[in-house]
Write a structure and sequence with these properties.
This protein has about 220 residues and is an alpha/beta fold. The chain has helices at about 15-30, 35-40, 50-60, 65-80, 95-105, 120-125, 150-155, 170-180, 210-215; strands spanning about 5, 110, 135, 165-170, 185, 200. It has two domains: about 5-15 and about 85-215, HAD superfamily/HAD-like (Rossmann fold); about 15-80, Orthogonal Bundle (DNA polymerase, domain 1). It has nine helices and six strands. The chain has a six-stranded parallel beta sheet, with helices on both faces. Strand 2, helix 6 and strand 3 form a beta-alpha-beta unit. Helix 1 crosses helix 4. The longest helix has 18 residues, at about 65-80. It is globular, with a radius of gyration of 17 Å. The termini are close together. It binds 1,6-di-O-phosphono-beta-D-glucopyranose (B16) and magnesium ion.
């Protein structure tokens, strides 16, 4: 029986991928690296440092830890500036309907995100009060595709993996959730339609009444 829902943040609750892309593109330009939208697809769900390492590899560049930290700070400042006006209007279609339906059904809710900005973003969206837990990139030792972030979220709700549905838009996230023994809904990314249990183009198409009994 499904008792809890765990949502990835970027790409599931809010579309911040574009802002991550613009920020990394600015960093890449300064380094003379050609960073495309396709490259950005590979960074969905990937931690900030792993994203930087991916970009440096594209440009066959190697930097020491201090230089990398400076680039990470610079990227995050650009990113935070670009999302400064983020608010309720940016919540993706179908999210609020599922959240209120889940509340009606007395289900528990959590966020499981690789982003170290997750708490701040959930706050900006004015959704913090709905979640029992927001587990983010600052709270885990291993990032997706390791299941730690989702296992921690389930633990905070006192639920087993099999009692939860994870909603994810990234390959690394779906793999993480499957490894952790969760029921997984792949959202809005055709490339991951076959690796989750169910695929929906948008959360608008997800019928919680049906799937609460299906899993
Ligand atoms: P930050 P998610 C992930 O969030 C993003 O998909 C990914 O593109 C980003 O690099 C990562 O968070 C780290 O974000 O720089 O804010 O710590 O999809 O797991 O919610
Ligand atoms: Mg995501």
């Amino acid at each position: 029986m499904i008792k809890g829902l765990i949502f990835d943040l970027d790409g599931v609750i809010v579309d911040t991928a574009h802002y991550h892309y613009l920020s990394w593109r600015e960093i890449s330009r300064d380094l003379n690296i050609d960073f495309t939208v396709k490259d950005n697809e590979n960074l969905k769900g990937v931690s900030r440092i792993d994203s930087l390492n991916y970009i440096l590899k594209l440009g066959s560049l190697s930097f020491n830890t201090e230089e990398k930290n400076n680039l990470l700070d610079k990227k995050n400042n650009i990113y935070k500036h670009s999302i400064s006006t983020l608010g309720k209007k940016n919540i993706l279609k179908g999210v609020e309907k599922i959240l209120s339906k889940a509340k009606e059904k007395k289900m528990l809710l959590a966020v499981g995100s690789s982003s170290k900005n997750a708490k701040m973003i959930v706050e900006k969206l004015n959704l913090t009060h709905l979640f029992q837990a927001v587990v983010d990139g600052t709270m885990v030792k291993k990032t997706k595709p390791d299941p730690e972030v989702f296992l921690k979220a389930a633990k905070k709700m006192n639920l087993k993996s099999s009692e939860c549905i994870v909603f994810e838009d990234a390959e690394s996230g779906v793999i993480a959730a499957k490894k952790g023994g969760f029921n997984v809904v792949s959202v809005g990314n055709i490339n991951i339609r076959n690796i989750g249990d169910v695929y929906v183009e948008s959360l608008e198409d997800f019928n919680l009444d049906y799937y609460a009994k299906y899993f």
